[in-house]
Design brief:
Blueprint lengths: L1 H37 L1 H12 L3 H24 L3 H19 L5 H24 L10 H16 L1 H8 L4 H16 L3 H18 L4 H4 L4 H24 L6 H26 L1
Helix pairs in contact: 1-3, 1-5, 1-11, 2-3, 3-4, 4-5, 5-6, 5-7, 5-11, 6-11, 7-8, 8-9, 9-11
Length: about 270
């Protein structure tokens, strides 16, 4: 009875996670737009100084970035052209990194963008999962599996950033374990849930809490909160979608199905002989 109840709850929760977690992911990009719009004079001036150009060009780039992100958000959440929306976000992110990256910490930005990309890939996979499989494009299955693989590997960059911070020994061991299990796709759903717990500890309950509400600017604090939601959304979608075909879990599932079919064949054969 209890097992049936748990399975029933999982069937009800799974569509909700896949349906609403994309909004968690996109909240980060929405807050980026809101911050740029509210602080347009400041943001445009700062970008002009970094690019060493006229202030007008700084405001022009800010407007371009805002419109590009708004268009991407609409395509991802309002249509079935999420791939086009993600492409727009990537174009904006690449341009932004070329102009404004501090090259001495290039690898930090690389892992940060990889983490964002992982959440976006999980978002695309979630939206595809919610559709009827008859509506999937040609070669949709292989594309879907590539999204799960790429999303899982990109999300694993979070643990590398944690290790680079030089956290306490226990949390470093936890980070190494999660890195191995998530990247290899071993009990991926379980360890994705555990990652959310570790993420809440790291960002909310440890000394990193100041990155969330330790700012005088309310919008900036909200932007960091939305980044936390983006990461949580990515790992919760991973917890529902699993590691996919190209993971240890996928290999074990294929092997189990193969043995189950072989066992059924033996039963049928023995019954026929009888």
């Amino acid at each position: 009875m209890v097992v049936k109840l748990i399975k029933g709850l999982k069937r009800e929760i799974r569509p909700c996670v896949l349906k609403y977690m994309p909004y968690f992911v996109m909240s980060y990009y929405f807050m980026e737009v809101l911050y740029s719009v509210v602080n347009t004079p400041l943001v445009g001036r700062e970008r002009a100084i970094v690019m060493d150009v006229n202030e007008v060009l700084g405001h022009f780039y800010t407007t371009f970035d805002v419109l590009l992100t708004i268009g991407a958000i609409f395509l991802i959440l309002g249509t079935r052209k999420e791939a086009s929306g993600v492409t727009l976000l990537l174009i904006g992110r690449v341009v932004h990194r070329l102009f404004f990256s501090i090259w001495t910490i290039f690898f930090y930005f690389l892992f940060t963008d990889s983490l964002d990309m992982g959440s976006l890939l999980m978002l695309m996979a979630a939206k595809i999962t919610l559709r009827d499989q008859n509506e999937w494009p040609q070669m949709g299955e292989s594309r879907y599996q590539m999204m799960l693989l790429g999303g899982r590997l990109c999300l694993s960059s979070l643990f590398i950033m944690w290790l680079d911070e030089g956290m306490e020994t226990f949390f470093s061991i936890v980070s190494i374990g999660l890195l191995l299990f998530i990247s290899l796709g071993f009990h991926c759903k379980l360890f994705a849930y555990l990652t959310v717990v570790a993420l809440l500890y790291h960002d909310v309950f440890s000394n990193h809490w100041s990155m969330l509400w330790g700012w005088n600017d309310t919008l900036l604090s909200m932007q960091y909160f939305s980044l936390l939601f983006c990461k949580i959304g990515g790992f919760l979608m991973l917890s529902e979608l699993g590691g996919g075909k190209w993971s240890i879990d996928g290999f074990r599932n294929r092997k189990a199905v193969k043995w189950e079919k072989k066992g059924n064949y033996r039963i049928i054969k023995s019954q026929a002989a009888a």
